[in-house]
Amino acid sequence: NSILDKDIHHLSGGELQRIAIAAVALRDADVYIFDEPSSYLDIYQRLKMASLIRDLAKESKYIIVAEHDLAVLDYLSDYVCIFYGKPGVYGIISKPHGVRVGINLYINGYLPDENMQFRSYSISFDLSPIPNEWRPEDLLLRWPSFTKEIGDFKLSALPGEIHKGEIIGIVGPNGIGKTTFVKIISGELQPTQGYIENFGISISYKPQYIFPEANKKVKDYFDSSIIEDPWFKEEIIKPLEIELLLDRKVDTLSGGELQKVFVAICLSKDAKIFLLDEPTAHLDVENRLTVARCIKRIVEKKNVAAFVVEHDIVTIDLMANSIMVFSGEPGRNGIANPPTSLRKGMNKFLKELGITFRRDPQTKRPRVNKKGSWLDRYQKEIGEYYYTEITAEDLKA
Ligand SMILES: Nc1ncnc2c1ncn2[C@@H]1O[C@H](COP(=O)(O)OP(=O)(O)O)[C@@H](O)[C@H]1O
Ligand SMILES: [Mg+2]
Asked: 42 CA distance to ligand 2 centroid (A)?
């Protein structure tokens, strides 16, 4: 409603996306096509969009959606086709599979019925328990409660800590102060009230918006020794396919290429804390999962920590062990709640949304329960919105 009277040329990316989705959904058609409907949407808007498209399908309509957010895709679809091949060279479309099997095949990187391996490894969702209590010697940074006022907007942060080996996922609606929080932790902005004492901890920061400098090559941003480092080459440069981009000028890169390059630059620094603000925006699903894996590898290998602002639930699940859920009123006041375990944080956040998740018994990836299904109702009743020990297989038995 707040957008209806605005000039269409002044809308933000997310506002324009929501208007376009609504306009298409309101048409009376037999077939509806949505091309990447979750781009520019925050995590709440994505799930609302998915639920809207799902409702359209109830009216015996055909719907085709191209989508990179696996949780959204899973929730939306009855069938999926996997597109694979070599970007810019050729693409092959698999035959349709039921949504659960199709996404699992994608995660495994192998299509048995076509005898086609399109990825050399399978993506794994690590369910190893994280420590409930961090050891005092693992503490890297502690922030007190602080506030930041920018124009009409006020961010209030509650105290929190980050530890060695910890990846904190940051979620919340657009305009709630996630970027402001990250900028304050990075030292780029100072709080209005409160003071963050950084005892010499080095921080590497990838901002949400990247402004490439003219006439600078990709490789100029890297320390020459790190590009030659075998571990970095194998774990970061190769999987992100940056080798071919090293001699390119940064101002000629596409949005996705720029994102991958600046994530790699951020991870190449010798830092104790990595701050990544929306590192998967503009990336396809394959690159999103690769970025999550790269961040995880660096944090594990160097025993450092990361804050990652992210809207993609599957990507968060893949890498984060803790989560900060921002609440409040977008554009007015935001609250940065302290980090909690992934399970507890997601539980609180999904409760507000009225959506429950379970784990796929085979790949362990998180899946949205169909609204009103037995599991959905059961999980709501016991207050476990984010995966219970009960799997769909148990239910069948
Ligand atoms: N430099 C600025 N000038 C005016 N308003 C700003 C500025 N930076 C951020 N804001 C406002 O502060 C609020 C929070 O912004 P941000 O931290 O970027 O949110 P998020 O990253 O959660 O989307 C928004 O309403 C935004 O418009
Ligand atoms: Mg932001």
From this structure: 10
